[in-house]
Amino acid sequence: xxxxxxxxxxxxxxxxxxxxxxxxxxxxxxxxxxxxxxxxxxxxxxxxxxxxxxxxxxxxxxxxxxxxxxxxxxxxxxxxxxxxxxxxxxxxxxxxxxxxxxxxxxxxxxxxxxxxxxxxxxxxxxxxxxxxxxxxxxxxxxxxxxxxxxxxxxxxxxxxxxxxxxxxxxxxxxxxxxxxxxxxxxxxxxxxxxxxxxxxxxxxxxxxxxxxxxxxxxxxxxxxxxxxxxxxxxxxxxxxxxxxxxxxxxxxxxxxxxxxxxxxxxxxxxxxxxxxxxxxxxxxxxxxxxxxxxxxxxxxxxxxxxxxxxxxxxxxxxxxxxxxxxxxxxxxxxxxxxxxxxxxxxxxxxxxxxxxxxxxxxxxxxxx
Length: 368
Fold this sequence. Notes:
four-stranded mixed β-sheet, 31% helix
């Protein structure tokens, strides 16, 4: 039996993208932002599934009713019943479990391709081949399969996967035994990982059979499983949202990595050269954007805006309808929105997340 007869996609569409402030806010998070071209990151995620998974087999779990409405607006081909919103944020373990539960009701033999709504993938044909291979491996071995990305440099903002041995090949693509996950190492450790050739960036994209994942939750995160067990009998009924809210109240706040993937001893990994980027901060936006002759990445949202650079090099400039002038500066991030302006060095773009904590502490909710 082939996995292609039971292939489903689960898109987790939550999070605020705080490191892309001020463009990404609670009301308009990065997955609904047009950071690259005319499609939002969420729309790009849905479109790359064309030819891989039928629209009727695509499910979305999001974190608010407002987000659910936006998803329906941006992807009208998705069935309304396939889009569910959580009553409160409880991290990704229960979100993935809820989506898997919905898929399982439709097909108990389903294999779920798990995606995050705010990632960017440049090589879509290669992406689809990798996902098919991972799905077949997950189906054949009834286990979790991670998608690993060969590191290009010792990045300290990503988790790493140690996968030294090939278990088999499917359609010419190697499938590795997954030995261990390491979360965001320091620079020295990251250098060792990359030099060894045995480590991969953890893209966070997983593939799992529905029954295996639910049993893994039961074993490794029983409180999460118990919360979902209360929801299962009311799926598709008028009581669903009420029972879901009660279940979430008692559910633990834990990531899918900590709850399941890091604990599965039989896990596998498929390497992927797919032009993957999690678009984690403004530095990543700069790297992915088209530059002018001075190395400036200029992204205009509005119709009237204009950028002038005088001896300005290697900057990211994003704005609406303003005139932005940079003189004699290099390697900056300048993001100008209607009510907030961000200016920082590109190599310090990760510090934007600290700003969110400061704004919360100062009760500046309107800027979040």
